[in-house]
Write a structure and sequence with these properties.
313 residues
């Protein structure tokens, strides 16, 4: 009897922990992507559990599709993040095409990582659709209790049940998600991502700095215009400039603090060569009394995507 009670307690603890993990994942996804439907929650969960082998037919076909997607998108079409974990357990990562566009890795490296993630599980058998269906029904049981009030919830839930009932599991993002977030990524298994792609991303660190500037009072009006112009031009014309945000100190109008964020060192070096920056630099030399560049290290660079997404809400 005591042994049976212990087993029951362990089972209940496991279910509770799973429910907590599910709630944490769903709450984070809805904070980051408030336009999501149940379809998008489901998609992230099955990607994390099943991987992406359903997308792989042959290498040439997969490469052709990747080429077409890369050719039809610009950096402005892509989400601001480089990668994000899938689902509840983070067995796989969504790797943005941004890192190919920015030259962090080559197209061939992303293609190879994606194909190996879809076809090689280190000798282990992939989960069955039946096991995924059982797992999803446990997940949806938790989601039902969360009262999320998602649009089309019941119809999405019925659609998911219908595909699982005939032995299928893969779906697309909802139209609302695609329109709001324009997802362009490939699924990469966690081990491959952390061993092969993460180190290359680490070498392409974001540059964040604050420029502390004091100008001569007689040039205040001219400098205000120049600072506004270079900030707007840089953000509009340079994909590698995430932010150039001029600010004026309230207690001393002759002092400025400019927040600068560049995607990497290459983006910063390119910025220094642009006509709009050169015009700003040469045109304001005589206006600037002092300049100090303060480099800082972000404690959580991945939260940048949420910061700039919230700006548009």
């Amino acid at each position: 009897m005591k042994k049976m009670l212990t087993i029951v307690v362990i089972m209940l603890t496991t279910i509770t922990a799973s429910a907590q993990d599910t709630q944490g994942f769903v709450n984070k996804l809805m904070r980051d992507y408030p336009k999501s439907r149940l379809l998008d929650i489901y998609k992230s969960c099955f990607q994390d559990y099943m991987g992406a082998e359903h997308l792989v037919t042959d290498r040439q076909a997969v490469e052709k599709f990747l080429d077409e997607e890369l050719n039809m998108t610009s950096l402005y079409d892509l989400m601001p993040w480089n990668y994000e974990p899938c689902g509840i357990d983070s067995n796989y990562y969504r790797v943005s095409m941004r890192i190919v566009k920015e030259g962090v890795i080559t197209k061939e490296q992303l293609l190879d990582a994606f194909i190996r993630s879809a076809t090689d599980k280190n000798g282990k058998n992939r989960p069955s659709i039946k096991s995924w269906s059982d797992r999803w029904h446990m997940i949806i049981g938790t989601i039902d209790q969360m009262s999320l009030h998602l649009p089309h919830y019941e119809s999405d839930k019925a659609f998911i049940d219908s595909i699982l009932s005939v032995g299928k599991y893969a779906i697309s993002h909802s139209p609302e998600y695609r329109e709001a977030y324009r997802p362009h990524y490939r699924i990469v298994e966690r081990g491959i991502f952390e061993q092969e792609i993460m180190p290359q991303l680490a070498q392409k660190k974001m540059i964040v700095r604050i420029a502390e500037i004091e100008v001569y009072p007689e040039y205040l009006k001219d400098y205000l215009m120049a600072a506004r112009n270079v900030g707007a031009e840089s953000v509009r014309k340079e994909p590698g400039v995430i932010c150039i945000f001029p600010n004026q100190v309230k207690d001393d109008e002759s002092k400025f603090r400019i927040v600068e964020i560049y995607r990497n060192q290459e983006a910063y070096q390119y910025h220094l060569t642009t006509p709009h920056f050169k015009a700003y630099k040469q045109g304001t030399l005589h206006m600037v009394k002092s300049l100090n560049l303060l480099d800082i290290s972000p404690l959580d660079p991945e939260s940048m995507s949420l910061i700039f997404t919230k700006q548009n809400q």
